């Protein structure tokens, strides 16, 4: 009898070790000449996907994971490939899982670039991910996030020596999202505008604008490789499937609302419909109910989304 707790403990430790081995924080995948995606499994400490582009005179990093330790691991991976300076970091949006490691790169002199709205949101809007009463240490973490050094409004082109990198503002996911385009390799770093076979976080979303942004991306880059913000590297077909999820969600919620349903009754109607089509996608259990509720609020015109500082 006395040995049982030890046995249980051993099994737990063994499972934890096996689990850690089975889920590394991220995997670096080459998606073009000098273009790399850092793809994280769900619920890894890194928290999201990132990537980097090697030009002839420097490196541009796309997103910095959730924390500085993971970002330093990304820096170490970059150093296995090139010793060129890290000149730029682009934050695709303000969410903590894409900006939390900024310090790892700003400390060594990289310029952090983002769409104009990020600077006002990064240290304020991120607090909501810790609930109505964030713990002091979580508040301190959010309030000490490294902000972008350089802001753009609609579009900016960056030359890494001879290599052109285009950063473009697109609506839908937060109101401050950037995509990073690499024309010479036909790669699109889409940030959280694209989730690869995963349900998205719609906390800040305007889904009608998001669908239009995805249509635009598909029209402009029909054969690109898309690095998603979460999930695997995506093809144009994966992007179409993701766009169709947003369309289905809006249609199913809109239909239930037209039938007079709201609250739990609306959820009970729409959730099984979504599960039938998308139950095998990542984050279904975490996000499906909230996706429905947030889309219901959006369709009723009651959804709150972050407001740019200039418009407050
Ligand atoms: Zn994310």
Q: What does this 3D model show about the protein?
A:
With 312 residues, this protein is α/β, with parallel strands linked by helices. The protein has a domain of 212 residues: Ribonuclease Z/Hydroxyacylglutathione hydrolase-like (Metallo-beta-lactamase, Chain A). It is built from 10 helices and 12 strands. The chain has a 7-stranded mixed beta sheet with strand order 1-2-3-4-5-6-7. A hairpin with a 2-residue loop joins β1 and β2. The longest helix is centred in the last third of the chain and has 23 residues. The radius of gyration is 20 Å and the shape is globular. It starts with a helix and ends in a 13-residue tail after the last helix. The N terminus is likely disordered. Bound molecules: zinc ion. The site of zinc ion has 7 residues, from α3 and β12.
Topology of this protein?
Layout (H helix, E strand, L loop, with lengths): L2 H20 L4 E6 L2 E5 L10 E5 L4 E4 L5 H14 L4 E5 L5 H4 L2 H5 L4 E5 L2 H4 L14 H8 L6 E3 L2 E6 L2 E8 L6 E6 L4 E10 L10 H14 L4 E7 L4 H23 L4 H16 L5 H16 L13
Parallel strand pairs: 4-5, 5-6, 6-7, 11-12
Antiparallel strand pairs: 1-2, 2-3, 3-4, 8-9, 9-10, 10-11
The chain binds zinc ion (ZN).
Zinc ion binds next to helix 3 and strand 12.
């Amino acid at each position: 009898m006395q040995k049982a707790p030890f046995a249980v403990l051993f099994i737990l430790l063994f499972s934890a070790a096996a689990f850690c081995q089975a889920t590394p924080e991220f995997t670096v995948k080459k998606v073009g000449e000098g273009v790399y995606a850092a793809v994280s499994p769900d619920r890894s400490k890194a928290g999201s996907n990132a990537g980097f582009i090697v030009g002839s005179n420097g490196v541009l990093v796309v997103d910095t994971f959730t924390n500085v330790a993971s970002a330093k691991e990304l820096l170490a991976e970059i150093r296995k490939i090139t010793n060129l300076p890290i000149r730029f970091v682009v934050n695709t949006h303000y969410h903590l899982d894409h900006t939390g490691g900024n310090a790892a790169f700003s400390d060594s002199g990289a310029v952090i670039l983002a769409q104009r709205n990020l600077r006002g949101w990064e240290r304020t809007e991120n607090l909501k991910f810790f609930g109505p009463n964030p713990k002091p240490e979580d508040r301190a973490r959010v309030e000490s996030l490294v902000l972008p050094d350089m802001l753009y409004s609609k579009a900016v082109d960056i030359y890494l020596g001879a290599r052109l990198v285009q950063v473009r503002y697109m609506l839908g996911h937060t109101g401050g999202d950037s995509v990073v385009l690499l024309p010479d390799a036909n790669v699109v770093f889409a940030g959280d505008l694209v989730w690869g076979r995963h349900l998205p976080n719609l906390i800040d979303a305007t889904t009608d604008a998001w669908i239009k942004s995805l249509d635009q991306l598909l029209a402009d880059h029909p054969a690109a490789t898309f690095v998603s913000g979460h999930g695997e590297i995506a093809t144009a077909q994966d992007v179409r499937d993701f766009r169709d999820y947003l369309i289905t969600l809006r249609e199913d919620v809109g239909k239930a609302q037209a039938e007079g349903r709201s609250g739990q009754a609306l959820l009970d109607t729409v959730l099984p419909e979504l599960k039938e089509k998308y139950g095998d996608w990542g984050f279904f259990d975490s996000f499906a109910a909230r996706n429905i509720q947030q889309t219901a609020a959006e369709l009723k015109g009651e959804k709150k989304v972050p407001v740019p500082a200039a418009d407050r």
